[in-house]
């Protein structure tokens, strides 16, 4: 396939990609900023691998997450988490609630997970997704790769629906989920307060069956 600089064809050839497979990423024009453009060029000439996370990934999972705890409203956590807390979280995951790692040239660039939506047993056919990327890896299709894989896993394990709880101002996350067919089913007004501002939460939902 010929790619022009503008690369108007947006293709993320990932839907249904089995874990461990190489994922080719091709997106429309590069994001702004020199570093981002360099990474964009790298991604264009490279590929991202998805694999199941291992316990030894907890540190990098936590490092990526804690960046957003400190800097962003995409998580409502305000205190950085400890490695022990992330290890405890990891222990609650497994085949039905997977944690998927995205790697580029051997380096972890992001992760995604399916988690229990609510503990009460009648919620057992519902799961909640989370995806966090290294800041420099955003906007290049890695989130799409991870979400595509999470949807496949959720179907495989018989979930009926996936929920994403998204702070309303998070345009990238809203766009990512909308791209995969999630629709907004609820908006909770001013339920969050971080960085001195009230925050709304959108619940976006994908029906699987
Ligand atoms: C949200 C996040 C996972 C999205 O992953 P990503 O790799 O950046 O997204 P993609 O490149 O796969 O883009 C997915 C879609 O969203 C759109 N998009 C991406 N960034 C966007 C932005 N900043 N504003 C609006 N739309 C955006 C893309 O255009 C794309 O749609 P298209 O393919 O139809 O053009 C990633 O940006 C991230 O880690 N953000 C910080 C953490 C976070 O918010 N996590 C979500 C918590 S549930």
Could you please describe the fold and organization of this structure?
The chain is of the alpha+beta class and 209 residues long. It has one domain (11-207): Aminopeptidase (3-Layer(aba) Sandwich). Helix content is 28%, strand content 32%. It is built from five helices and nine strands, in the order E-E-H-E-H-H-E-E-E-H-E-H-E-E. It has helices at residues 34-44, 58-71, 83-91, 142-156, 171-179, and strands at 11-12, 22-26, 47-52, 99-104, 107-116, 126-133, 161-167, 183-194, 197-207. Helix 4 links the parallel strand 6 (126-133) and strand 7 (161-167). The chain starts with 10 loop residues before the first strand and ends with a strand. Bound molecules: coenzyme A (COA). Residues 10, 68, 74, 130-133, 138-144, 164, 166, 170-173, 175-176, 179 line the site of coenzyme A.
Top keywords for this entry?
single chain, Aminopeptidase, alpha+beta, nine-stranded mixed sheet, 32% strand, globular, 209 residues, 5 helices, binds coenzyme A
Strand order of the largest sheet: 1-2-3-4-5-6-7-9-8
Give the full name of the CATH homologous superfamily: Gcn5-related N-acetyltransferase (GNAT)
In terms of quaternary structure, what is this?
A: single chain
Write out the distinct hetero groups bound to the structure.
Answer: coenzyme A
CATH topology: Aminopeptidase
| Largest sheet data | 9 strands, mixed
Which structural class do you get from the secondary structure elements? alpha+beta
CATH class: Alpha Beta
- Helix amount, in percent? 25-40%
Given the structure, what is the number of helices?
5
Choose one word for the global shape: globular
**Succession of helices and strands:** EEHEHHEEEHEHEE
Q: State the total count of DSSP E strands.
A: 9
Q: Please indicate the percent range of residues in DSSP E strands (runs of 2 or more).
A: 25-35%
Number of domains: 1
Any guess at the CATH architecture? 3-Layer(aba) Sandwich
